[in-house]
């Protein structure tokens, strides 16, 4: 174990420790430190590589999904560790009846050049991949029901890139807006409220003494807003004195709903007796 530099210097000054020993001790200590630094750097590089590999794997699972998950073909489904726990290894072998029908279908609609069939353990079915256009289909390209589309993983990747670009644009806009606010004192809240008050006072001075029209003061449910009926006032339609313009029986006692605009039952019976006689 090398001596501390201060102790080695004191021993060398007293002649107890030779200068060569001190140099050897210092060189050994430097070599030890260099080895420790290299070891720590190598360990840090390994940890960084492991973290990067883990992030890439998580991103790949997020975009492509687990092989055993049958929902990975939904472009709006993001696989989680629950998918792996629930579906396990999936269907490693296709159903014999399905495979027999598939071979029979391929005899009628064989795969052209540039197409490849791939088994999906999540659904237990084969899908067909075009190597040139990078599109997939659940049926061979010659089948009437074939509809080659972009793979769900590509759609998820495009959606993720679009969301990331929108977030970056939003951050840039917010940063620019903050810079403009810092550069323009007139846009500060207190100045904005003051300008609004001054503008409102100017509008009031311009319309003072004139018939000011209030903004949107006509009720859209008012018949005058959508017909030729003249616009009424607050007292239009109300009874004046003993007159009941609404036609209700104002002499009836009780709640308002009992003031009916038609005769009471007794009057109806009396009228019926008179008509019979």
From TrEMBL:
InterPro entries: WW_dom, WW_dom_sf. Residues 20-43, 180-277 are annotated as: Disordered. Residues 109-143 form the WW domain. Residues 194-206 have a biased composition (Basic and acidic residues). Signal peptide: none annotated. Residues 25-34 have a biased composition (Low complexity). Coiled coil: none annotated. This is Polyglutamine-binding protein 1. It comes from Daphnia magna.
């Amino acid at each position: 174990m090398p001596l501390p530099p201060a102790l080695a210097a004191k021993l060398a000054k007293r002649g107890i420790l030779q200068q060569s020993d001190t140099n050897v001790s210092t060189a050994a200590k430097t070599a030890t430190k260099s080895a420790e630094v290299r070891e720590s750097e190598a360990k840090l590089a390994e940890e960084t590589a492991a973290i990067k590999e883990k992030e890439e794997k998580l991103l790949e699972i997020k975009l492509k999904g687990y092989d055993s998950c049958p929902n990975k073909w939904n472009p709006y489904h993001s696989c989680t560790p629950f998918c792996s726990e629930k579906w396990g290894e999936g269907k490693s072998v296709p159903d014999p009846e399905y495979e027999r029908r598939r071979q029979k279908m391929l005899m009628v609609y064989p795969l052209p050049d540039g197409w490849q069939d791939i088994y999906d353990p999540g659904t237990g079915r084969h899908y067909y991949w075009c190597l040139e256009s990078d599109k997939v289909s659940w049926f061979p390209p010659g089948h009437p029901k074939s509809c080659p589309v972009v793979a769900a993983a590509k759609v998820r990747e495009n959606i993720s890139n679009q969301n990331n670009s929108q977030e970056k644009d939003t951050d840039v806009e917010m940063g620019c807006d903050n810079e403009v606010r810092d550069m323009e004192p007139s846009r500060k809240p207190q100045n904005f409220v003051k300008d609004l008050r001054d503008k409102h006072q100017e509008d009031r001075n311009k319309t003072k003494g004139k018939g000011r029209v209030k903004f949107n003061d006509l009720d859209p449910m008012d018949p005058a807003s959508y017909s030729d009926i003249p616009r009424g006032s607050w007292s239009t339609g109300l009874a004046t004195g003993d007159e009941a313009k609404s036609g209700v029986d104002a002499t009836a006692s009780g709640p308002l709903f009992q003031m009916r605009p038609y005769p009471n039952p007794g009057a109806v019976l009396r009228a019926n007796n008179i008509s019979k006689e």
